[in-house]
Every structure is written in structure tokens, then in C-alpha cells.
Amino acid sequence: MDLKPTRLRLRVTAAAETIVRGGHPWLFADSIREMNRAGAAGEFAVIFDRQDKFLAVGLFDPDSPIRVRILHAGKPATIDAAWWQARLEQALARRAGLFDAPTTGYRLIHGESDGWPGLVLDRYDTTLVLKLYTAVWLPRLAETLALFREKIGCERIVLRLSRNLQTLAEQQFQRRDGQVLFGDSPAGAVIFSENGVRFEADVLRGQKTGFFLDQRENRAEVETLARGKNVLNAFSFSGGFSVYAARGGAKSVTDLDISAHALESAKRNFALNRNFPAVAACEHQTVQADAFKWIENTAAKFDLIVLDPPSLARRAVEREGAIRAYERLNSLGIARLSRDGVLVAGSCSAHVPAVEFFDAVRRAAVRSGRKFTGLKTLQHPPDHPAGFKEAEYLKVIYLKFAA
Questions:
Q1: Is residue 207 part of a domain?
Q2: Distance of alpha carbon 148 from alpha carbon 155, whole angstroms
Q3: Under DSSP, is residue 64 helix (H, G, I), strand (E, B) or coil?
């Protein structure tokens, strides 16, 4: 006879109880004091407090330092199909009215901040890309996929997996990174639009889910600053900032990236937008090089410089080194700015808080000896909400230099 296993029950440290009650969505392995049995990936784990009262329920991951991804805390709740449907509808309602017809690329589910821990769902026109960062979703993929298909219209759904999941996914669940879960495989890159600008997204093999949708607001801001300017887009990836700058009337745009593949994508994105007269008139150059070294050694001057590097601190212990690197990078950039030039400095390092990043950029500006004015700072766009501290990764500061 098959017996249903007893519910996985956990008791945690006093400090963890406080953190969970405060709404934090992660329970770490070293916070667990007691378990009634071993747990399997993706099963529900019920957390009790020291008085043996319900504290929270989440998805268990035996192989991750984040042992439980919390779904619900407070009073007990029944997590069934109706509960998941309501949670999806909440995420979709959060985006209602944010985007009009000229924007067909945006985030539908942003992980923990939307109540779907370790899961991201992006829309690129009629293609959905599902990115998983934890194994807890692998045994639940079929039911999750069915819900998405029922509630979100699309032609296809593509699965993307973080590197740490790929071997497990293939060996135990026959799932692989870039697998098309529903619909036909795209013939090439998927084309979507953002504020009327067209971009390609490599949804099968590209970084993240195929594009950096979180910089939409900053790309639009750069467009307003670019008229008549010579623009440098360092760490350019596929040229998102550059196309916007060109549409905004930039005289020239230089894409600088170490990846030849990324620069070829930037060229294609420019070609996709030649219907805009300003883009067609803009001189577009690409430079394949290490951005730090090239900026340090070039004699060229630019009126607008965008510095948006990949994360310089992937772990907490790298934080101080990253802050020094950001300060050095922005010092190099400021030295390449012409009179009345504008610096746009970004960071996607979650381990570097916004205040510390902004301070590092301002220190670089002060050390330059040039007069400058802070124009603005921006952080997460509304389709990428940051519901807890560790989710606060994106920050961008705008400085204008007088001399």
C-alpha cells in the first residue's frame, strides 16, 4: 500500500521567526532547528513557531542555501489551484494599464516580489519566456505551464534555466535551457517593441530572458538627453540605449562591448529602426574591446556617456571591491566627457546598495575637479517591483558636468 508522506514540518530559530513574520521570502538552511523528515524539491514545507503555531508555508529546496521559498505567512491558508490562479491574477493586475500598444515587451511576474519566488515570466510580443532560478518549480512545471496558458494569451512559451539548475533539470525532469514548452520554436530572434522602438530578443540562448527589460525607463530618459550629442554606450550589449539615443536625435553613437555577438545584435537593432529618420541619420559605430581599458586609453570625447556594466559584485564579499571598481570606472568616464556632458551611471549589483553606489559615482565626480549637477536617480520600473532588500539591485544616476 502506498502511504502519503506526512507533511514536511519545520521549526526555526527565534531570529528567523522574526524575519519570517516581517515578510521576508527566504528561509536559510542554518535557520532551521528541527525537521520531521527529509524534504524533496518543490514540496510544501510548513513552518511552525516555538509555540507550535503556524508561521508560514513555502516551497522546499534541499540543495539550496535558501532552503524554503516562502509563499504565505500569517494565518493558515489552503494553497490549491484557486490560490495559484489568484496569485497570478494579482501579478497581472499590477501591470494593467502600465503599457500601451507601442510596448509589447515587459515583465509579467517578478519572482518573490510578485509572490512567485525564484520564477520570472517575461513577455516579448506573443512569446513568453519563463526563467527559473530554483529547483522548486521543476516538479511543478506542468501545472504552472497550464495556468499560464489558460490566463495569458501567447503563441509560445520558452523555458530558461539558471546555470545551477541545468544539469538537475535535464537528468531528473528532462527539461533543458532554451526548451520550447508550448508552441513552435522561433525561426530566429523574437522581435518586440518598446515605446515604438523595435528590438530583437534571443529568447532561446540570450542573457537573462533575451533582453534587459528593466532598463526601459532609463533608455527613454537617455532619448530625451541625446539630441545633437555624440554618445558612448559602454557595456552596450545589444545597443538598447544607443537606438533610443539615435531616435532622440544623437549625432553619433558608439557601442562599446567585449562581445562581438552583442555588437552584431546592436547593428541589427539599429537596422530594425531605420524607419525613424533620426536613427537613419545617426552615425553608428561599434567597438569590440574591454570597456575599462578602452575608455582609459581613448582620446575621444563624448557629450553623453552611458556606463551600465554587468554586476561587479555577485557575492556579498565582493561588495567593497565593486564599489572601488564603480568609482574607478566612472572616473574614467568623466575624463572622456566634453563640456556640458552628461554621465549616466548604472549598477545591477544587488550587493551594492543604491546609496553606496550613488556616493561612489559622486566621489568620482568630485575628484574630477569639474562642476556638476545631479539631474536625477532612477531605480526599479513598476513591472520589476522590489519587495524586499535583496531584490533591490537596479540603480542609475544622472550627472551633468559644466566644464
A1: no
A2: 12
A3: coil
Residue 203 maps to a domain: no
The pLDDT of 86-110, averaged and rounded, is: 96
Across-strand partners of 7?
none
Measured between alpha carbons, how far is 74 from 172 in angstroms, rounded to an integer?
Answer: 34
Claim to verify: residue 177 and residue 220 sit in the same structural domain = no
The maximal CA–CA distance of the chain, rounded, in angstroms, is 81
Give, rounded to a whole angstrom, the gap between the first and last alpha carbons of the chain.
Answer: 81
| Distance from C-alpha of 186 to C-alpha of 163, rounded to nearest angstrom | 22
Collapsing DSSP states into helix, strand and coil, what is residue 296? helix
Q: Percentage of the chain surpassing pLDDT 90? A: 96
Within this chain, do residues 342 and 394 fall inside the same structural domain, yes or no? yes
Give residue 2's pLDDT band: very low, low, confident or very high (50, 70, 90): very low
Indicate whether 291 and 146 sit together in one domain: no
**CATH number of the domain where residue 249 is located:** 3.40.50.150
Based on the fold, state whether residues 230 and 345 are members of the same structural domain: yes
SS3 letters for 173-224? HCCCCCEEEECCCCCCCEEEEECCEEEEECCCCCCCCCCCHHHHHHHHHHHH
Domains identified in the chain, total number: 3
| Residue 316 and residue 218 share a domain | yes
Question: pLDDT band at residue 395, thresholds of 50, 70 and 90?
Answer: very high
Within 10 angstroms of residue 16's Cβ, the number of other Cβ atoms is 24
Q: Which three cell numbers stand for residue 338?
A: 566634453
Burial state string for 334-368 with b = 16 or more CB within 10 A and e = fewer than 16: bebbbeebbbbbbbbbbbbbbebbbebbbebbeeb
Domain of 92: which CATH number?
3.30.750.80
- Which residues, 6 or more positions from 9, have their beta carbon under 8 angstroms from its beta carbon? 35, 36, 45, 46, 48
- The pairing of strands 230-234 and 302-307 is parallel
Which residues are CB-neighbours of 324 under 8 A, at least 6 positions away?
A: 360
Task: Report residue 71 as a C-alpha cell.
Answer: 509563499
As given in the structure block, the three cell numbers for residue 165 are 539548475
Q: At 41, is the secondary structure helix, strand, or coil?
A: coil
The rounded distance, in Å, linking the Cα atoms of 6 and 89 is 31
Please indicate, yes or no, whether residues 117 and 49 belong to a single structural domain of this protein: no
Instruction: Indicate whether 198 belongs to any domain.
Output: no
The H or E element that residue 371 is part of is none
Burial class (CB in 10 A: 0-12, 13-18, 19+), 369: exposed
